[in-house]
Amino acid sequence: MPDLLVSFQQKLLEAGCDEAGRGCYAGPVFAAAVILPRHFHHPLLNDSKLLKPSVRLELRTYIEAHALAFSVAQVSVEEIDTINILKASQKAMHIALASLKLTPEFIAVDGNYFLNYKTIPHACIVKGDGKFSNIAAASILAKTYRDEYMQRIHSEFPQYNWASNKGYGTQEHRDAIKENGICIYHRKSFNILPVQAALFE
């Protein structure tokens, strides 16, 4: 595992921020913001995509117990389809930041784009969830909370097997869409099926 730096800079109170589910065919987009103490460390912490589900859950418990502040937010499928996924992802991150019990003085964001949040300075870091602990922690929270959401709604439409694919466009998911059409949890704006396909209410 990499030896991550806790934060992008050390002078200001910093929140790490990341989203989960941006590229999914179904379900909300989630985002998390995390402020860690300066000497935070966990040997298994890394980009959530590189970790086993059991390790992610172990880390979530540790992060929530030791963070100075954390928050998780989501933006619905309906809003994704209304404002587009990029704006929805940004909105989710802004909601998460606004919900922190501490106000950050600096924001470190995974990726190459971030819409200014209030007047707080920020830095975008490509693959930041593999470089900085606070971004990695945010990726863990966003990913685990979103996965749990998809597992909950799996029972409503088990034909898509969201308990396994979590709404991502796997071959299994694409085949299920071809056979069953799309449902209320699918992102219509993603044009994943022809217009004439069945829509389950």
TrEMBL record:
BP terms from Gene Ontology: DNA replication, removal of RNA primer; mismatch repair
The Gene Ontology terms for molecular function here are:
manganese ion binding; RNA binding; RNA-DNA hybrid ribonuclease activity
Query: Which cofactor does this sequence's record say it needs?
Result: Mg(2+); Mn(2+)
- Any single Pfam family the record assigns to this protein: RNase_HII
Q: Which reaction does it catalyse?
A: Endonucleolytic cleavage to 5'-phosphomonoester
Report residues binding a divalent metal cation. 18-19, 110
Q: Where does it primarily localize? A: cytoplasm
Q: Which protein is depicted?
A: Ribonuclease HII
Fetch the InterPro entries from UniProt: RNase_HII, RNase_HII/HIII, RNase_HII/HIII_dom, RNaseH-like_sf, RNaseH_sf
Localization annotation? Cytoplasm
Q: How is the cofactor bound?
A: Manganese or magnesium. Binds 1 divalent metal ion per monomer in the absence of substrate. May bind a second metal ion after substrate binding.
- Return the similarity comment: Belongs to the RNase HII family.
Q: Which residues form a coiled coil?
A: none
Top-level taxon: Bacteria
